[in-house]
Design brief:
Nitrilase/N-carbamoyl-D-aminoacid amidohydrolase, 321 residues, 21% helix, alpha/beta, six-stranded mixed beta sheet, binds 3-methyl-2-ureido-butyric acid
């Protein structure tokens, strides 16, 4: 065990820029203007990194099924930055503030991903992350009050979880459903992550099991706080909340310390900025003691983790929600 605790402070002031709903008829330019306003608000509070939600540029379109997927292509970005998103990059450069942003990506080879980028304070794109755990269903389920057809619109990433040197630390990314899986955090923990940024859209009605509905906020905090603590990392989770196209979504954006404690949390479900000073040195108190992975982990005892997908009850991988 290394035992070395936090040294001279290495503080990055991080903002969570929660958004209220984006309706289907909202113009992309107007949504980008909203993002710019949030970025300026965060910059006024001294933030160096602003975290925006998943699919921040559009409404959460997987709630509708279209028989021809090309009909939904207008929700996707073919380049980043683009003419439409350039004002956000310009604002970031002007204020010296970096950001992470979630959007639907259509690649030059026609692949569709649920993607998040990390942009440094000079406006350069440091990294792309494509969602690994894609929830929901792949076909039309007309009996639902609304669809969650992410598995129709997006293919799961085969690139895994990166961790990048940026903002004077080790930064990782995950998107929405990824935050519910311990593997997500551990993959990044093994790459010495110090701060994980995550955007999400979580409907407050979970159609496959309504008993989970009143627990949405609890489960959101539970998974992110435990992921932070068990890997000694900061976690920043940011929602697109409120009622979007008749579907109410969870807010509860928060900044969590390596201790698992919540440093800041939004109060409402609309556009709102929270900030916290994240001393990345704090991670050492956990990563070099109780969760010294090099010293204490037992990968030889974890063979099921990579040799099988689940307990084998649904070998066809049938969708559950
Ligand atoms: N956008 C998401 O990934 N939403 C999921 C669904 C399943 C509610 C989530 O885990 O929050």
């Amino acid at each position: 065990m290394k035992g070395e605790l936090r040294g001279a402070p290495r503080v990055v002031r991080v903002a969570g820029a929660q958004m209220g709903p984006v309706q289907r008829t909202d113009q992309r330019d107007d949504t980008v203007a909203r993002l710019c306003a949030l970025l300026h608000r965060a910059a006024d509070l001294g933030a160096e990194l602003v975290v925006f939600p998943e699919l921040a540029l559009t409404t959460f379109f997987p709630r509708w099924f279209v028989a021809d997927i090309a009909e939904a292509d207008h929700y996707f970005e073919r380049e980043m930055p683009s003419t439409t998103t350039a004002p956000l990059f310009a604002a970031a450069r002007q204020r010296g503030v970096g950001f992470s942003l979630g959007y639907a990506e259509l690649t030059s080879t026609g692949r569709r991903f649920n993607t998040q980028i990390l942009v440094e304070r000079n406006g350069t794109v440091v990294a792309h992350y494509r969602k690994v755990h894609v929830p929901g269903h792949a076909g039309h389920e007309p009996n639902r009050p609304f669809q969650h057809a992410e598995r129709y619109y997006f293919e799961p990433s085969d690139e895994g979880f990166g961790v990048w040197d940026a903002f004077n630390g080790r930064i990782g990314m995950m998107i929405c459903n990824d935050r519910r899986w311990p593997e997500t955090y551990r993959e990044m923990g093994l790459a010495k992550v110090e701060l994980i940024v995550c955007g999400y859209n979580t409907p407050l009605q979970y159609i496959p099991d309504p008993s989970q509905d009143p627990l949405a906020d609890f489960h959101n905090s539970l998974v992110m706080q435990s992921g932070a603590y068990q890997n000694g990392t900061f976690v920043v989770g940011v929602a697109k909340g409120g009622e979007e196209e008749g579907v109410d979504s969870l807010a509860g954006s928060q900044i969590i310390a390596p201790s698992g404690e919540v440093l800041a949390k939004t109060l409402g479900n609309g556009d709102e900025v929270i900030v916290a000073d994240c001393d990345l040195e704090w991670c050492k108190n956990y990563q070099n003691t109780l969760f010294d992975l090099d010293y204490y982990r037992r990968p030889e005892a974890y063979h099921r983790l990579t040799s099988q997908r689940g307990p084998g009850t649904h070998p066809d991988g049938s969708p559950r929600g």
